[in-house]
Amino acid sequence: MASHGKQRHMKRIAAPLARGLSPKGSVWVTKGIAGPHRAKESIPLTVLLRDILKIAGTSKQARSVVKSGEVLVDGRSINDEQFCVGLMDVVSVPKLGKHYRIVVTAGVLKPMPITAEEAKLKYCRVQGKRFVAKGKMQLNMHDGRCVILEKTDAKPGDTLVFSLPKQEIKSHLKREKGCRCLVFRGKHSGFMANLEDIMERARSKESDARLVGGIITLKNYLFVVDDKFKIE
Fold first, then answer.
1. Which of 50, 79, 169, 207 fits a disulfide with 62 by CB distance 3.0 to 4.6 angstroms?
2. Which option is the CATH number for 9-115: 1.10.10.1100, 3.10.290.10, 3.30.70.660, 3.30.70.930?
3. Model pTM?
4. What sign does the dihedral 103-106-110-115 (CA atoms) show?
């Protein structure tokens, strides 16, 4: 049987809700390729440029912008129009002097305008931690990157702040009482407040977290941020 190749598009009505696309518009949108973020929690670059930021008027124009290397994601040039961006990714279009950080509000991913200085920082949530060869530690981050360190006290749920484009660790934000958190999943996604308490559950049940303001969500739905981080 002949291969039809990879599918490059999908119907707009079938696009993940996290993209926040209006049902009105062109029938087809870019599907996106497998990458560091879940398909249902990411946005292809052409969709971001055409349907959300309105930088391009058509898919052809959006592809041209990406192919020309004018779009940076986390400080590096991306020329694949199907590449998907997700939570906390920094998207820059230097030619236009525009920078954005992908945040979540009410379950929808949104590009939040930021300054050139803010675009030099990337927040990464620690998803996993394990020992590797020669006694070193490997940290797996929410955006797919792996960091090998000689020694670290970072734990799953903590946040590491990286400099862009050098990708160096600038600071470590611990998930502990009093820390500032962004809820990035669930019905409270987009809510920010300080952590009051973590309520551990018996056996395999996921632990809950209580935030200032009475919001209760799953502990694993928290993304630790600092006072500089804001959603407008």
1. 50
2. 3.10.290.10
3. 0.89
4. negative
